[in-house]
Amino acid sequence: MGRNKLVRFKENEENYNVVQEGKPSFETIKGNWKAEHFENQNPIVVELACGRGEFTVGLARENSEQNFIGVDIKGSRIWKGSKTAIAEKMENVAFLRTQIEQLDKFFDQNEIHELWITFPDPRPRDGDEKKRLTSPRFLEMYKSMLDEGGIVHLKTDNTGLFEYTLDLLNSRVDIEKLEHTFDFYQSPYQKEHFGIKTRYEKIFSDMGEKIKYLRFSFK
Questions:
Q1: Which of 20, 29, 34, 174 has the most CB atoms around it within 10 Å of its CB?
Q2: Domain tally, the chain
Q3: Is 121 annotated in the active site?
Q4: 212: left (phi over 0), alpha (psi -120 to 50) or beta
Q5: Could you tell me the sign of the dihedral formed by the alpha carbons of 176, 104, 132, 63, in that order?
Q6: How far apart are CA 209 and CA 195, in angstroms?
Q7: Could you tell me where the DSSP H helices lie in the chain?
Q8: Would you say 91 and 65 are in contact if contact means Cβ atoms under 8 Å apart?
Q9: From the candidates 72, 121, 128, 183, which is the catalytic residue?
Q10: pTM to 2 decimals?
């Protein structure tokens, strides 16, 4: 392991806005994000596979009346977002280091208002369907944690994952307010995202890939 990673892991242990194994809050945070961590009752917005946290931090800059949590297993990645938020004194940003498969251990029913899935691994092989972050088992988990009217967003460059997700959502009876575009930057939705791009989004956009976007709620 490189020295830089060791330094970042050590700083994550000290950074108040990182919730990870070894800290007391890791065992008690479920159902208590508003009261114990943010100390307010503002809506919670979660980004899955947040990487370096560019999108989480970017949204938090634009929405001071909401709380934002980036989730990723890579500590050396969330370190960047954590340090940026601390440097800018952004009290409405936190990071959770865990596997997304374990998300329901950290969020209670109705605790999340919005959920962002930004450029996830598309898992293109049929045998990997269960690992896709929009597969049925993940959708059921999200449904239990979202509040009434809560929104799920998906942004991806991968057409296969996008079409898979659209087909799946259209086949379910518990989905409402489903909207989508195959060309995000030629759609009215882009204005709602404040021009914030993740690292991967910039890479794919520069390569000429069209960005796909959808959002929906559960009935």
A1: 29
A2: 1
A3: yes
A4: beta
A5: positive
A6: 17
A7: 3-14, 25-28, 54-62, 75-87, 136-145, 159-170, 199-206
A8: no
A9: 121
A10: 0.94
